[in-house]
Design brief:
Chain B: It comes from Punica granatum. The complex is a heterodimer. Helices cover about 40% and strands about 20% of the residues of chain A. By secondary structure, chain A is α/β, with parallel strands linked by helices. By secondary structure, chain B is an alpha/beta fold. Chain B has three domains: about 170 residues, Rossmann fold; about 170 residues, Arc Repressor Mutant, subunit A (Orthogonal Bundle), CATH 1.10.10; about 110 residues, Structural Genomics Hypothetical 15.5 Kd Protein In mrcA-pckA Intergenic Region, Chain A (Roll), CATH 3.10.290. The two termini of chain B are about 25 Å apart. The chains are: A alpha/beta, B alpha/beta. The interface between A and B is large, with 62 and 62 residues.
């Protein structure tokens, strides 16, 4: 394919990964622009992975300041407090990330991007969001879908020792090599809103319980006007009550969402670092696949629970009756 | 791991940092290239977690200082090694010290994390791991059929002959029909004559190995009865024009002070390592690389060994392998590909390593908390199986016939009248049994041992023994003899029963001996629910954790991308195992595993997936649902 050759420096640095996905894919990576909105521990890990992989640029947005919770799971934040003065989380992380691979353009921006125009989003190939409300998530997802350019959308949420990744590649065409033959594949992805609107009773019996639990807590946060991740153990009775209401409304057996699971998810507001590494790793790999056009992309939810150690993929799309 | 509460750790790594590490070993920066991994990693971690205690050792984990007493100091050992030999060594030390071991490996998108506890779970060696691939000598010297054979020839024979230690044995002129009488000539042929023009010399070598040797091989009809005949290639045909002095002058290649920047490709104006060169281009590179070795690196000739990071060596080996491949009708490869094969490069990415690292920490924390029921072997798959990308499996019980953790005797079939003690030591004791400092005894007679404090006459005695055939040893070893082999550092004792056998198949059994008795586990009882780990010291989180890395790039089994395989039949609680096939011993695939699905309840919907991996075919999958996994 045409385009610039990889430089000698790039070939040397990326040698081991070029042996995995090829020089062509690497070239595409070096031209990709990534936007990240909201930096939690998992997303910090993701940023590290994607910078090491050698993308073209990474833009971070997160106006929050440093908190204790953030420090315990986000290894990009320098422990030296004197550096925090006047800097947003995004700016601090951006400074750290530049160090990992000087060939990647890492920068930070400020503002509530959910209000930004389509023009802003069209500068990017991939958008990753975390630590945002349900409303914001849907809004940004929607903005990405409205663009004529395909902008891949991902969300990553980590609640204590569990996590969830959502993938939306809209209408995605890619080539697969099967037994030396190149096959054209096409996948249709639903938006987050569409996917989560699928009636629970229609989902397979073996559906990951974590999926439902995440939806309950998400709903709770929205209902109570909480900031993302702002649910704590004291809220548990109210959360369980909401769970029962939702199960009834959705004709789902209450035991499909164990109380113990919900309790565990709200028991701590600190992310468990190894879970951040796992989510950040899977997310990183998905983004690399989407940019390079190589490999079967995940469709459309990935759920991990350290408690049982399973990393599960669920395909939740709207099904017509 | 550093985010957890007060802990102290020890990190052992003998490696220094290279540029190619930087795409995933994120504690290192470009400015650290050349420095000790253990030390730089420690510094990097302290920068974001200043309050923990890490002691780095820039050392080889096989060093005798890291003995059983050393290992006993730790609550848990985490391995991030890149070779089987070191892993086995650590496995044995952890068994001897009774310290839990968390093993792991990655290759590309695949990876796994496993937990090993003495007496409770399988040890790392309960399942035979595929050993690094070796090839029969005749395949390399006479009848290559794959590109890798050509690489091995170019690297271990031709390169070694021309640039390496000439006192070493070299099979380069071994021909299928006649091995005798050529050693005199070969020495003359490969040596450059006094004042011989370098290009003439290069062409002479070219013609000898790609022309003359092939013609000689062709003269033996039998070899080619069922094989494609190679064609001899002469330099006058591959590269007709004698090269005019190109812009290959030494200055063009950068400073003569830096041998590593000298490059035939650069000299010839060839840019991309991804290109597959034509026969002519390969021939040009061959001659140019040879010339550059003699004109810019003459001092090193006679002591060079192949190093994948030596650009000129890689160019030479690529070119030589390609010309040979061309001769034998084998597809040619790019320098990039050849380098990967010759250098045994493991492809690796940051993302898989991050996932595996997270899983290692999760298991390590379980170990520290003595959460024995919840230890898991976790497999990271490239393609989801039954919608699982990360698949946890309960650890299996120890293999009762594992010679490492269950003290089962082994048997060795060998020709006791022809094989020497040296063969036994090199091929069995060191290569197969993985012992580094063995002591070999026949009853009370010491046949051989390794040690620093041996007396001169003992050393001489052992040296003499090595050269004797087994049946002629001072304490003769014949059929029915039992030898005891021991490694003091690993605290491992093995009994080997000797069985005399006359003949061995040269291709299938190139070692001329076969170790048996290390069998697959047969039906074993289900893991008991009520196991408690006996308290080995207290699981006090302030005690140190050892983290061992020979290369922070952790890699899995050297040759196959196959995830360790097992099948488990649930209700009758019997287990079958298949081992990934190695190059020599055919896999003992005994697929009795029956598929059984238990109806799921409202909870406890855990799925355990076993893979039947055979690198030669596509994987077949069996799925079993289990109620025994924890919720």
């Amino acid at each position: 394919m045409e385009g610039e050759e990889l430089t000698e420096q790039e070939t040397a640095l990326y040698d081991r990964q070029i042996r995995v996905w090829g020089a062509d894919a690497q070239r595409r990576l070096t031209r990709a622009a990534i936007l990240v909105y909201g930096i939690n521990g998992a997303v910090a890990e993701f940023c590290k992975n994607i910078v090491l992989a050698g993308v073209g640029s990474l833009t971070l947005v997160d106006d929050r300041g440093v908190t204790e919770e953030a420090l315990s799971a986000n290894f990009l934040i320098p422990p030296d407090e004197t550096l925090y003065e006047g800097k947003s989380l995004a700016e601090l992380c951006s400074d750290s990330l530049k160090d990992f691979n000087p060939m990647v353009r890492v920068s930070a921006e400020r503002g509530d991007i959910s209000g930004f125009s389509g023009d802003f989003y069209s500068k990017f190939d991939v958008v990753v969001v975390s630590c945002c409300t349900l409303t914001t998530k849907k809004l940004i997802n929607d903005k990405c879908r409205r663009l004529s350019k395909r902008v891949a959308f991902y969300s990553a949420d980590c609640r204590y020792s569990s996590g969830e990744i959502f993938v939306d590649l809209h209408s995605y065409k890619y080539t697969k090599n099967k037994l030396d033959e190149a096959i054209e594949c096409e996948l249709q992805y639903p938006s987050f809103e569409e996917a989560t609107a699928v009636s629970w009773s229609k989902l397979p019996r073996k559906m990951s319980k974590l999926y439902f639990a995440m939806r309950v807590i998400e709903k709770f946060e929205e209902k109570e006007g909480r900031s993302p991740g702002g649910v704590s153990i004291t809220d548990l009775p109210a959360v369980l009550k909401l769970k029962n209401e939702l199960c009834e409304a959705q004709s789902l057996k209450e035991s499909q969402i164990p109380d113990a699971l919900l309790e565990r998810l709200v028991s701590s507001q600190i992310e468990f670092p190894p879970v951040c590494a796992i989510l950040g790793g899977v997310l990183g790999q998905e983004v690399i696949k989407a940019i390079s056009g190589k490999g079967d992309p995940l469709k459309n939810f990935f759920l991990f629970d350290a408690f049982d150690g399973k990393g599960v993929i669920e395909d939740i799309s709207s099904r017509d009756a | 791991m550093a985010s957890q509460q007060q802990l102290s750790a020890v990190k052992i790594d003998m490696d220094t940092i290279e540029v190619s590490n930087l795409n995933r070993q994120f504690l290192f920066r470009r400015s650290h290239v050349g420095l000790s991994k253990a030390k730089v990693a420690r510094d990097a971690v302290l920068r974001f977690r200043p309050n923990i205690n890490i002691t780095p050792y820039h050392a080889n984990v096989k060093d005798p200082d890291f003995n059983v007493d050393f290992f006993k100091k730790f609550n848990v050992v985490l391995n991030g090694l890149d070779n089987l030999d070191a892993r086995r060594h650590v496995n044995r030390l952890c068994l001897a010290a009774d310290v839990p071991l968390v093993e792991s490996g990655t290759t590309g998108f695949l990876g796994q994390v496993t937990v090993h506890l003495k007496g409770k779970t399988e040890c790392y060696e309960c399942q035979p791991k595929p050993a690094p691939k070796t090839y029969p000598v005749c395949t390399i010297t006479s009848t290559p059929s794959k590109f890798v054979h050509c690489i091995v020839w170019a690297k271990d024979l031709l390169f070694a002959k021309l640039f390496g230690d000439t006192t070493q044995d070299n099979d380069l002129n071994v021909r299928s029909s006649d091995a005798a009488g050529s050693s005199e000539n070969s020495k003359d042929v490969f040596e450059r004559r006094k004042d011989e023009d370098i290009e003439d010399y290069g062409r002479r070598i070219f013609d000898h190995v790609f022309g003359y040797n092939i013609e000689m091989a062709l003269s033996n009809e039998d070899t080619w009865k069922n094989r494609n005949r190679p064609r001899p290639i002469y330099s006058k045909d591959a590269l007709p024009e004698k090269s005019i002095k190109q812009n290959g002058s030494v200055e063009k290649n950068g400073s003569t002070d830096d041998p590593s920047s000298v490059s035939a490709m650069a000299s010839l104006g060839m840019r991309s390592p991804q290109d597959v060169w034509s026969l002519m281009e390969n021939s040009k590179v061959f001659l140019e690389a040879l010339k550059l070795f003699f004109t810019t690196r003459e001092k090193e000739i006679g002591s060079l060994s192949f190093d994948k990071d030596d650009q000129l060596a890689v160019e030479f080996v690529t070119a030589a392998a390609n010309i040979r491949a061309s001769s034998f009708g084998i597809p040619l490869h790019s320098l990039f590909e050849a380098k990967g094969i010759a250098g045994n490069i493991v492809h690796a990415v940051a993302t898989t390593n991050a996932v595996i690292a997270g899983l290692i920490v999760i298991e390590a924390i379980k170990v520290l908390q003595n959460d024995t029921k919840n230890y898991r072997m976790t497999y990271c798959l490239e393609y989801p199986t039954k919608n699982m990308l990360l698949m946890p499996v309960e650890p299996f019980e120890p293999n009762k016939s594992c010679y490492v953790c269950s003290e089962t005797p082994l048997s060795l079939e060998i020709n006791t009248y022809q094989s020497k003690l040296r063969d036994f030591v090199e091929k069995i004791v060191k290569a197969k049994l993985g012992m580094h400092s063995p002591i070999i005894m026949h009853g009370s007679a010491l046949l051989y041992e390794v040690g620093d404090d041996l007396e001169e006459d003992m050393v001489a005695n052992y040296a003499a023994n090595l050269e004797k055939v087994l049946s002629e040893l001072p304490s003769p070893v014949t059929g029915g003899t039992m030898l005891t082999v021991e490694d003091m550092q690993q605290e491992l004792v093995c009994n080997v029963n000797i069985k005399h056998r006359e003949e061995f198949d040269e291709e299938k059994e190139p070692d001329g001996m076969v170790l048996v008795g290390w069998s697959q586990p047969s039906s074993t009882e289900k893991k008991e629910e009520n196991h408690r780990v006996s308290d080995v010291g207290t699981s006090n989180s302030s005690r140190p954790i050892a983290e061992l890395n020979e290369d922070a790039e952790i890699s899995t089994m050297e040759e196959t991308d196959v995830v360790p395989t097992k099948k488990r039949k649930l209700s009758t609680a019997s287990k079958n195992a298949t081992s990934p096939s190695s190059s020599k011993v055919p896999a003992d695939t005994d697929n009795h595993g029956k598929v059984e699905e238990i109806d799921d309840d409202d909870d406890d919907d855990d799925v355990v997936v076993m893979l039947d991996g055979n690198p030669d075919n596509t994987k077949t999958r069996r799925v079993v649902t289990s109620k025994n996994l924890c919720v």
